[in-house]
Amino acid sequence: MPLHDEPFTPDDVEWRPVSDRLATGRRLIAAACCLVVAIVVALVAVLTSTAWVYALLLLPVVALGWSSWLFGRQVRATGYAEREDDLLVRRGVMFRSIVVVPYGRMQFVDVQAGPLARLLGYSAVQLHTASPGTDAHIDGLVPDEAARLRDRLASRGEARLAGL
């Protein structure tokens, strides 16, 4: 393993992936945005009677293809791991990050899901600590796993806090 990967691959960690439904949700949002851009470009082309403007329709098509590929990679690179004393959250392919949140530092845990997330069957867990720099969120959890993780993190946080 290359030396530059060591901070992002601790030895004692079994990473749990998030649901691919997150990538689907992001792709649907990108498709809607690209459709709006394509409609605007088509309207401009029709109203101005300029043929070369139709070539601009390639931009939303290329953007949609690139974003679909990118969202798949981003979701596959996202994961979390529960250890004895802390929770690790990783994300990123090109710009990697790993956040370590000690259970004793957690103040509360939120579970959130917007309309599209509820329709596709995923949610997000947000961990809040005293320092905003150590807050973490895990997007793309199926609701059962989000509820299990919320309850587990809350109980571990209370147990660690009581031990201080």
TrEMBL record:
| YdbS-like PH domain mapped to chain residues | 75-153
Protein keywords:
Membrane, Transmembrane, Transmembrane helix
Highest taxon listed in the record's lineage: Bacteria
Q: Does the keyword Kinase apply?
A: no
Query: What Pfam family is a match, any one?
Result: bPH_2
Q: Does the keyword Cell membrane apply?
A: no
Report TM segments: 28-46, 52-71
**Protein name, UniProt field:** PH domain-containing protein
Q: Which organism is it from?
A: Angustibacter luteus
Instruction: Give the lineage.
Output: Bacteria, Bacillati, Actinomycetota, Actinomycetes, Kineosporiales
